[in-house]
Amino acid sequence: MSLRLKLFLAFGTMVLLTIAIVVLVARQSSVRELRAFMLRGGIAGSEEIITKLEAYYTATGSWDGAGDLLQLPGQGQGQQRAAGMSGMMRQRLILAQRNGLVVFDTANEMVGNRLSVSERRQAIALQSRGKIVGLLLPLGGMAATMKEETNLVSRLNQAALLTGIIAGSLALFLAALLAYHLLRPVEEITRAAEKLAKGDLSQRVPERGQDELARLAGTFNYMADSLQQAQDTRRALTADISHELRNPLAVQRANLEALQDGLYPLTPENLQPVLDQNLLLTRLVEDLRILALAESGQLRLELTPTDLPGLVQRVIEHFAPQAAAQQAEVRFFDDLDPENPLPPLELDPMRIEQILNNLLSNALRYIRSGGMITLRIARQAQAAVITVHDNGTGIPPEALPHIFERFYRADRSRSRSEGGSGLGLAIARELAEAHHGSLTASNHPQGGALFTLSFPLPPDAPREPARK
Q: How far is 239 from 316, CA to CA, in rounded Å?
């Protein structure tokens, strides 16, 4: 059974049930009110007489003399007429006690007799202080017979049934329109999802309004965008990996063939290029392995309490010879409050050192001879923050959104020996996020690239005192 049919049946059942209840209640109410109206004198109007009779009994406690309320002035004992409209319509009124004993009859025929069971059912109950104290039976005038009442009720039922059929048909038609309107976006999403499952990642659905179906359409479009982006990334990654592997393998093969053909003598100097390319391939494969593990959340971290400022200083010392060879300078500034030092952080020292190595290698690669790299460590709220700023040319604005992508190089003209594998920054960010930290890139207001590495402090770490 389709969803449209289910919705239609649900709406139709609800509509029919509602109409049936309305018709039933209206019928019962109409019959009850009609019966009360006719039995209480109908348009002959004995309602006022009933009120006077009940008030009379409440005041006197008996029906003695109550017949005067049912007579017109000047009428004889045997020719009485009911007062008000009842007299105009020649309606006969019989007043009886609660047990059915007649105490007054405008026709003076049943006084002293008792009402029959059927007459008691048709009589109007007179009440005083919440109790039945008498019966008033109107006869003649506009009072309807049982047959007439049955016919009238039948006609009312037919009218109610016709009204229900018309209202139900209109409601079912509107329910069908509503089901179609509600399910059209669902059908569009279903068709798009079927094509998406077959590999057509260009499928998108229109987003109409701001209801739940519009949110579903937006979620579908977001999923399709993500899948298409993932496919594009996978294709680009495959192409990049094949490109990155092809060059070292080609160099290795050329050198090995030259050695095999005797063009080069088999000496350590001639084997060194082959070894260098092999090391490059090994490093590239290892970088890919680390990146894949980090992205899948399977990278194993050896977390230990780590002195972060001390770790930064050790990394800088390791880079001192390389910086000196480039006539560059690496400066370190500890901006921490001596009275409120950083507590030991649960980090993997080897992976943090790998992050800093990638950042410093990247900075040394892009600064000019005689340039400067500045590292700072500070505390900002409940986080330890390390910044790496170089005075190079900075990052092109169009490259900032892609700087952490795999195999991305801001300067495409650089060779591999100058530009690296293009995985260092991607690995650095993944390692930072594996420690629940973050790594961002921007351009410093004074020029050069600025990388910001932050790690959250433990919840129980003392908070930084407010600065005055």
A: 35
CATH of residue 265's domain is 1.10.287.130
User: Would 430 be classed as within a structural domain?
Assistant: yes
* Helical spans, DSSP H, in 296-393: 308-325, 349-366
Residue type present at position 251? V
Q: Phi/psi of residue 97, each to 5°?
A: -75, 175
pLDDT tens sequence across 440-450 = 999 999 889 99
- Rounded to a whole number of angstroms, the CA Rg of the chain reads 49
CB atoms within 10 A of CB 407: 16
Q: State the amino acid at position 281 in one-letter form.
A: L
256 and 357 housed in the same domain:
no
Tally of CB atoms within 10 A around 96:
25
Instruction: Look at residues 261, 278, 295 and tell me which one is the last residue of a structural domain.
Output: 295
Cα gap 285→293, rounded to integer Å: 12
Together in a domain, 362 and 267 = no
Q: What does the pLDDT look like over 384-431, one tens digit per residue?
A: 999 999 988 888 988 888 888 877 766 544 444 444 567 888 889 999
Contact 396, 357 (CB under 8 A): no
Query: How many separate domains does the chain show?
Result: 2
